[in-house]
């Protein structure tokens, strides 16, 4: 669990505000481009900067260090961040926040994140007229340090402390006259939430779990290769505010990769210790738990290409989600794991060291979405116990929602559209089901190719010319003009081979591997090499001579619907 340890705060004065917007800065350059951090005890500053990187100050006789750290924007779920540097001021007993002006300003203090701006004159330039009255009267920048060794930068612009902020722990000083300092909140054990309005989770009127989103679900999308599973996730399950983690299962992927593992660590003194290093599942579990008002989505592509039950391990139990409120309810929102498990490593990451015996549950604001190609018969199968814990959804293979530019794109120079080719080949696949294993899963998906795979580069010309040039090239007798020509041809070949290498190869090596004679002229073409070569050396509709007459006629004679 992430807790707030320290808060640095500094009221912005007119001089600071001018620096932020380059007001009254000399046209010749120079001038101050930093924010003051004066009036704060050096020991408190060094303590606040404990997790920052230290470097030696270039100032003569300066024994204090320069501190640099990466600070996230408080309240930004996309993890926007930039570096902040605290440097000692020469001849003074205080620090400054370096390089804070129009060019280098930290994103937390920019207009796009709601930071106020000065008035402009008739020429459209910022002005100091009025001494910024009503703009910075109560403007305070804050930097929070958390128990995860992270820094978050933000600002508050309120006359009084918000009513929902915790009382009597020192936060009042941020809004009082003496508005600069570092607050030590470690003893209060206040849980951090990445919200500018309410970053103190433990003080949400005791409604921590009740305030959590209930968007969490387990969804498994399946269908033929290229049917649009990933497209569906992006357009139907994710939104602009979702925090998304994406990973891919494969035969060598393990429980340790997914959940985490104990690894050696060497401290500054050279002592070796062993600690748990979380995997992507544990990381997103922790983040989702600590940010209840943010939707998190874990996407597992090709979930059946790894041994999913083994990869999930005991976490498998957490996939059972709470679907209704019952009598004597446990208080967890719908979408939370129905049953918790004991895993002290995960629990410590989620709840903190003092709560590592707590039961681990998937929070209701975390969804897990998997994808799988049903045509993959040579990889791991998902047993019934695993599948029943997911909402299964078949992604239908049709052209209803596909981009018309792709559907109606012609395959190279053949005048046959991708849509027509797909439909007729898929009809043959289904009609040949008695001679194929899982025939419907061998169909071509609407998104099996990209638009670029269908484009034709006319510079390829007649490949017999290419063969002739290659012979001259091997003898080192090419002219400059011929070298340019063969280079153009090779670029064109690379483009024009995309379709046959992806589609024709799939039909030959996979879909019709055991009965190629159904669609291919196998009497004339006995190998993939021959098929690809025949396709490439022909022009227009002649490229489809590799197919049987009835197959070729089906999509060459087909009219647009």
Percent strand equals: 15-25%
Please give the radius of gyration in angstroms: 32 Å
Average pLDDT taken over every residue = 86
* Domain tally: 3
CATH class of the largest domain: Mainly Beta
The CATH superfamily of the largest domain turns out to be DNA-binding pseudobarrel domain
The largest pleated sheet is described as: 9 strands, mixed
SSE blueprint:
Elements lengths: L3 E8 L2 H7 L14 E3 L4 H7 L4 E4 L8 E9 L7 E8 L6 E3 L41 E8 L4 E7 L22 E5 L33 E6 L5 H9 L5 E6 L6 H4 L1 E7 L5 E7 L1 H11 L5 E6 L6 H5 L31 H8 L14 E8 L10 H4 L3 E4 L9 H4 L10 H14 L19 H4 L8 H12 L5 H17 L1 H14 L16 H10 L11 H8 L5
Parallel strand pairs: 4-8, 10-15, 10-16, 11-14, 14-15
Antiparallel strand pairs: 1-7, 1-9, 2-6, 3-4, 4-5, 5-6, 7-8, 12-13
Helix pairs in contact: 5-7, 10-16, 12-13, 14-15
Put the structure in a nutshell:
This protein is of the alpha/beta class and 561 residues long.
Q: Can you tag this structure with a few keywords?
A:
25% helix, Rossmann fold, 3 domains, 561 residues, 9-stranded mixed sheet, At1g16640 B3 domain
Describe the structure.
The protein is of the alpha/beta class and 561 residues long. It has three domains: 4-203, Beta Barrel (At1g16640 B3 domain); 218-394, Rossmann fold (3-Layer(aba) Sandwich), CATH 3.40.50.300; 404-556, no CATH class. The protein is 25% helix and 18% strand. The chain is built from 16 helices and 16 strands. The strands form three sheets. Strands 1, 2, 3, 4, 5, 6, 7, 8 and 9 form a nine-stranded mixed β-sheet that branches. A hairpin with an 8-residue loop joins strand 3 and strand 4 (65-73). It is globular, with a radius of gyration of 32 Å. The two termini are 58 Å apart. The mean pLDDT is 86.
């Amino acid at each position: 669990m992430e807790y707030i340890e320290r808060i640095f705060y500094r009221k912005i004065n007119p001089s600071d505000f001018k620096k932020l917007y380059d007001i009254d800065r000399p046209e010749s350059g120079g001038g101050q481009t930093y924010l003051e951090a004066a009036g704060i005890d050096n020991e408190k500053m060094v303590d606040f900067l404990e997790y920052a990187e230290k470097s030696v100050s270039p100032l003569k006789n300066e024994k204090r260090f320069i501190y640099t750290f990466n600070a996230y924007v408080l309240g930004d779920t996309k993890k926007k961040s930039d570096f902040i540097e605290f440097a000692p001021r020469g001849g003074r007993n205080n620090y400054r926040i370096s390089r804070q002006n129009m060019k280098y300003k930290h994103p937390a203090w920019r207009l796009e994140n709601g930071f106020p701006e000065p008035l402009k004159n008739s020429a459209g330039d910022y002005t100091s007229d009025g001494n910024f009255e009503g703009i910075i009267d109560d403007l305070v920048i804050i930097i929070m340090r958390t128990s995860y060794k992270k820094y978050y930068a933000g600002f508050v612009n309120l006359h009084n402390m918000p009513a929902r902020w915790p009382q009597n722990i020192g936060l009042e000083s941020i809004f009082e006259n003496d508005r600069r300092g570092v607050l030590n909140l470690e003893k209060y054990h206040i849980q951090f939430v990445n919200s500018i309005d309410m970053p103190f989770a433990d003080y949400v009127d005791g409604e921590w779990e009740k305030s959590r989103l209930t968007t969490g679900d387990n969804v498994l999308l399946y269908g033929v290769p290229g049917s649009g599973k990933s497209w569906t996730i992006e357009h139907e399950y994710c939104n602009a505010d979702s925090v998304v983690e994406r990973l891919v299962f494969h035969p060598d992927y393990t429980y340790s990769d997914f959940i985490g593992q104990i690894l050696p660590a060497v401290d500054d003194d050279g002592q070796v210790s062993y600690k748990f290093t979380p995997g992507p599942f544990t990381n997103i579990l922790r983040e989702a738990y600590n940010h209840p008002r943010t939707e998190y989505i874990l996407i597992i592509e090709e979930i059946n290409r790894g041994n999913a039950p083994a990869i999930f391990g005991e976490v498998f139990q957490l996939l059972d989600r709470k679907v209704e409120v019952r009598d004597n309810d446990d208080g967890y929102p719908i979408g939370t794991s129905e049953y918790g498990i004991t895993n002290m490593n995960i629990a410590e990451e989620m709840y903190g060291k003092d709560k590592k015996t707590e039961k681990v549950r998937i929070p209701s604001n975390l969804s897990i979405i998997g994808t799988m190609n049903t045509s993959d018969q040579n990889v791991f199968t998902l047993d019934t116990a695993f599948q029943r814990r997911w909402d299964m959804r078949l992604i239908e293979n049709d052209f209803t929602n596909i981009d018309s530019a792709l559907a109606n794109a012609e395959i190279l120079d053949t005048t046959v559209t991708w849509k027509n080719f797909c439909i007729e080949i898929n009809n043959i696949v289904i009609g040949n089901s008695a001679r194929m294993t899982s025939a419907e899963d061998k169909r071509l998906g609407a998104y099996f190719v990209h638009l670029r795979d269908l484009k034709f580069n006319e510079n390829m010309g007649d490949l017999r010319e290419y063969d002739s040039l290659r012979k001259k090239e091997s003898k080192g007798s090419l002219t400059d003009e011929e070298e340019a020509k063969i280079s153009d041809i090779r670029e064109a070949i690379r483009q024009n081979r995309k379709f046959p290498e992806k589609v024709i190869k799939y039909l030959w090596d996979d879909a019709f591997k055991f009965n190629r004679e159904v669609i291919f002229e196998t009497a004339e073409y006995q190998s993939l090499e021959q098929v690809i070569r025949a396709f490439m050396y022909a022009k227009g509709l002649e490229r489809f001579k590799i197919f049987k007459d009835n197959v070729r006629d089906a999509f060459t004679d087909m009219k647009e619907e």
